[in-house]
Amino acid sequence: MKLPQHNIKFALAICLVLCSYTQVQAESINSSTLVQNLRRKLNSPIFAAPPPPKGTGEPEGGKRSTAGSRGCDMGTNKSSEVKKQLTALVPFYSKSELVYGITSEPYPILSVYVPYKSNITYGEFVLEDEAENQQIYKVALTGTPGIINLRLPSKAQPLQIGKQQRWYFNVYCKDDNQIIGNLEGYIKREELKPTLKTQLSKATPKEKVQLYGAGGVWFEALSNAMQVHKSNPRDTSLQKLLQEIGLKDLVNQPIVDCCQLKKD
Predict the structure, then answer these.
(1) Do 219 and 103 contact (CB within 8 A), yes or no?
(2) pLDDT (tens digit per residue) in 169-227
(3) Long-range contact list for 156-161, CB < 8 A, 24+ apart?
(4) Which of 27, 89, 121, 179 is least surrounded by Cβ atoms within 10 Å, i.e. has the fewest?
(5) Partners of 93 in the beta sheet?
(6) Cα–Cα distances in angstroms (integers) from residue 157 to residues 104, 119, 236, in the given order
């Protein structure tokens, strides 16, 4: 039986309306999903802190920051006190009061905020293995407060995979070699998973921040975030990393281009 032409037109009109409604609804759902995913990504942690080590040889304590003592730095700052503290940019586990971070590199970078304006101070970096053998390095500091990056020299003994080591960073007054501030913590080198290695080989510096951060590899996440910040100061990767380990007061501090480690 042949349907009347006006019924066919009416049916087609209804079909078009329903199709249009379905398409709009699908686009609305897709748009909403994209927004939700974007918000979730923006609000999600950028660093997944690994659990502190357990078992034999478990590290205890450390010192992530220190206000310093009255000495040559105070006299040259032209103020009664240093407003910000000497601080290592490393995760702090409050329950165990542990300063601890993971690296994947044999020669990692330790970043420290140095608040002193004095140019009559110098630093000392010490790396100690499980047998308490020490590598000691002098650090020439500038008179500019800011974040400095201390890279272990390539001629030094590299960090061994699976071994945790203790590090110290001390600041002294040149006049009398009196210690002004001191920090200490632990670092452990771990092998990256094959999947993560493959992802990192194809990643941009910003993507590396996400990948290292998700893997709990603090030192490389931070160094890549600093690289991204240097090329694009508006990027928030560095800000997020520091906020997540409780150092949001350092997010706007300058990164000072120094300081080489020299064998003592």
Answers:
(1) yes
(2) 999 999 889 999 999 999 999 999 999 999 999 999 999 999 999 999 999 999 999 99
(3) 156/107, 156/127, 156/261, 158/106, 158/107, 159/103, 159/105, 159/106, 159/107, 159/108, 159/187, 159/189, 160/189, 161/189, 161/190, 161/191
(4) 27
(5) 98
(6) 15, 30, 34
Peptide bond into 259 cis (omega under 30): yes
pLDDT tens digits for 7-64? Answer: 555 555 555 444 554 454 444 444 445 434 434 444 577 999 998 877 544 556 789 9
DSSP 88-156: E-S-EETTTTEEEEEE--SS-EEEEEE----SSEEEEEEEE-TT--EEEEEEE--SS-EEEEEEPPTTS
Torsion sign (Cα): 237, 243, 245, 250 = positive
Q: Compute the distance between CA of residue 126 and CA of residue 93 in angstroms, rounded to an integer.
A: 22
Q: What is the pTM of this model?
A: 0.79
Domains and CATH numbers, the chain: 65-191+246-263 (2.60.40.10)
Q: How far is CA 226 from each of CA 73, 111, 190, 251, rounded to the nearest angstrom?
A: 27, 10, 22, 11
